[in-house]
Amino acid sequence: MSQSQRQDAVPLSREAARGVRNARDLEGHITWLDTFSGTALGVLSVASGIYTYLGVSSLLDENGAMSVFAAIAYSTAVSVGIFVFWSYMLRLFPAVTTTRARTGLLAAMGMGSLAIVAMSSWLNAAALAGSAAVEQHLAKTVQDYQTALERAHEIALTGQALERDVARVRQSFEDLSELEAQGSLSGLAGRGAVFRVLRQKSAELSALETQIAEQTPLVESAFTEGNTILSRMRALTVEPGSVEARSIEFSEAAVRLQGLITQLRQLSVAQLVERAAQDLAASVVLPELDSSTAAGRADQSATITSVLEVLGSRAATLERAAQNVQALESPTDVTYTPISAADAVILYARNFVPSWAGAIAIDLLPMVLVFILAITHGAIRHGRDGTGIEDTLTLAELRAAVTALRDVEQLSAPPPPATTAAPTVLTPDAAPKQPQEPPREAAE
């Protein structure tokens, strides 16, 4: 360095020197971390590929060699894609300095992350929680079937309760017939026309009451069998073993249970009671008035008219009770649909948040490394800001630079001029003398 260069050189301030030292330390750390960052990224990619293979295998219906090859090919492509994508990001994103370049790379990173989640993360989640998600689907289906069974049974029992209403109406007609037999209604004691009308309707209601009573054992039997099937379905949701095999048996039980729920809905007697109530007042066979006098026949006619009015009123009451039963909310139609592990994970994603978090984290964890490197490189550039290259050279770099400079100077220096030597003439006197042997005594 010349004298003028020594005078123009400005020493670094303490803060600038500290920034240079910090930048140098950070560069040393990054150099050391680079020795295993690629290996770590490769391990993450391979791990994601393994779980992706398990997820793809759960989606394939066949178990042949071609299916295995397809799953391996897909998982390998995913591993390579993840490794290459994050390798690009780890190298390029920390190196760019302009806002425009960083914005573009951030957009590319977002698109790539979405692509990774779409092609890998949900399959990883299926591998991590697929069986549990299918079991969750089975448990929810059991709950839906139980609700439907209980609702159908409740409606059927409400319909069976109409037996008491029918019995009350029948009893009222029987009581009226007894009064007529004593002559308290028409004034004519005996079993005449009015008595026969009352007994006719009493017999109809008695037949309806018997028909309703016959339905009760069928309702209870169907409900008991349904509960037995539900118990088996609950056991299938928690039994050890392959969830696919359990799903097959679960599907068969669901079909039988659906048939029982339909049977319970058909056992409801509300419609039967409604039709019987409508026929109760509409279909009346009027007997011939059998009084021997005109006044008696007039009394019988008036009594029958009153009985028909009472009959219509009781029938309307019974019909409204039956309609109220039919107005009850019907049980929800439940149909069990087998789903794959991947579909179950998506359908019940809220119940498997930790599994989803782990599946996504194993693919997007390198994003954190990208931001760490970007922040570190920014700190290095900030520490070197305002300093020349000569201020950032280490001693080893300075020695290498001096050695290189000397090599360049030697190569660029002109060669020394060549000199011609005069020929030497040997004379007898100038002949080289032979060395004399030392005396023996001296040698000894």
UniProtKB/TrEMBL annotation:
<feature type="transmembrane region" description="Helical">
    <location>
        <begin position="66"/>
        <end position="93"/>
    </location>
</feature>
<feature type="region of interest" description="Disordered">
    <location>
        <begin position="408"/>
        <end position="444"/>
    </location>
</feature>
<keyword id="KW-1133">Transmembrane helix</keyword>
<keyword id="KW-0472">Membrane</keyword>
<feature type="transmembrane region" description="Helical">
    <location>
        <begin position="31"/>
        <end position="54"/>
    </location>
</feature>
<feature type="transmembrane region" description="Helical">
    <location>
        <begin position="105"/>
        <end position="123"/>
    </location>
</feature>
<feature type="compositionally biased region" description="Low complexity">
    <location>
        <begin position="419"/>
        <end position="432"/>
    </location>
</feature>
<keyword id="KW-0812">Transmembrane</keyword>
<protein>
    <recommendedName>
        <fullName>DUF4407 domain-containing protein</fullName>
    </recommendedName>
</protein>
<feature type="transmembrane region" description="Helical">
    <location>
        <begin position="356"/>
        <end position="375"/>
    </location>
</feature>
